Amino acid sequence: MSEHILFLTGKLAEKQLHNILEKMQPKFTYTVHQLGLKVAALMTADMIGRRLTDTFGADRILVPGRCRGDLEALSKDLGLPIERGPDELKDLPMFFGQAAHKIDLSRYSVKIFAEIVDAPNVSVEEVVKRAYYYKQNGADVIDIGCLPSTDFPHMEDIIRTLKQEGFTVSIDSLEADDLLRGGKAGADYMLSLHESTLWVADEVAATPILIPEKHEDLVSLDRAINIMQAKNRSFIVDPILDPLHFGFTQSIVRYHEVRKNHPDIEMMLGVGNITELTHADTMGMNALLLGICSELNINSILATEVSKHACRAVKEADLARRIMFAAKEHDMLPKHIDPGLMALHETSPFPYSLEEIKELAGQIKDPSYRVQISAEGVHIFNRDGLHSATDPFDLFPKLHVENDGGHAFYLGVELARAEIAWQLGKRYTQDQTLQWGCATDTAEPTVDLHTFKPAGTTLKKH
């Protein structure tokens, strides 16, 4: 027997909800019930409790995504499950598709080594502070970056302090003496050893990351691998990722060759040579690089945040590794898993067409302005009419708020957000901040829907 769902909505959305459900042709049966309010987004749990007198034989109730209040308590009172649907009606088909296979992003296979560069010039306190920042953003290992021919008298203090704070630590240098000191101080990993410096691994317990003796020399790397395997020692192999136009494609080929020749060894990819040395947004780079890691079973990356444009590289890599793990586990494309790596665009930026916005505008009977966007531009409307433009300045003379500073300021902010969303192809929702994926930390996406949102400028003034 199919599930029966009761959809609660408002007057303005009732017709559209019927149309969407009819086009969906869902496997479940349903009832659409208009709860006696105009705007569905203003629905609250208390209002439902007062006004809903019949549940129409439903197995569960779906309410608008912005419905405020304690739905759990209301569910107990009514004796059936109540849940929030999507914020926008047009997202209902996707909502039910996602509900059918919710993706777990709690797991991953790639360790993130986050490097604190130029550590000889950084105090112990600053290193610890940076380590906690990296850990908060997903780092598993704190990498202490040495400098060539530079004294590092407080290296041991840094490593011991980090270990006391519970961090996993790697020491990063091409000089054997640095690596030996770091290993003796308690570092868990050493970056990097090659065939001629493998003796360091005999002196300390730290796990070495192996690189070729000379750049691109995979023969020497193979010999180092064989030596470590003969000693039954753990190790990680890094064939070295090169920057674009300086051997990037060939370095990817090297990674593939090493994996083909050594199917079971642990490998590392130094993503910083791409994220740091390419002036483009790093989210897409991290997605692609972690996708390569997923395909080649590379379970460690070395990430940095030196360049200003790469200031969120660790956080982005953390989400990318989770998305790629889930995609691989479910044998699916890395699509519709999580939107956090889509800062500038959205899968469905314009849920409503201009014709649908015109139809909604024709139903408005009050003076409060609504702002929406479509592929054609920015639209603002109330009972007195609909105005459209691609430049918000063209709208100001039509709004008649010259003598209402608060309202004018509010509309200016909203229209600016709407213009940005229209230009970039992002989702715009009035009275909500634009979403920039994992690039920003905003309270809005995780707002407590058990509480009631404070009145905004417009509500305060009208």
From TrEMBL:
Residues 93-334 form the Pterin-binding domain. Coiled coil: none annotated. GO terms for biological process: pteridine-containing compound metabolic process. This is Dihydropteroate synthase DHPS.
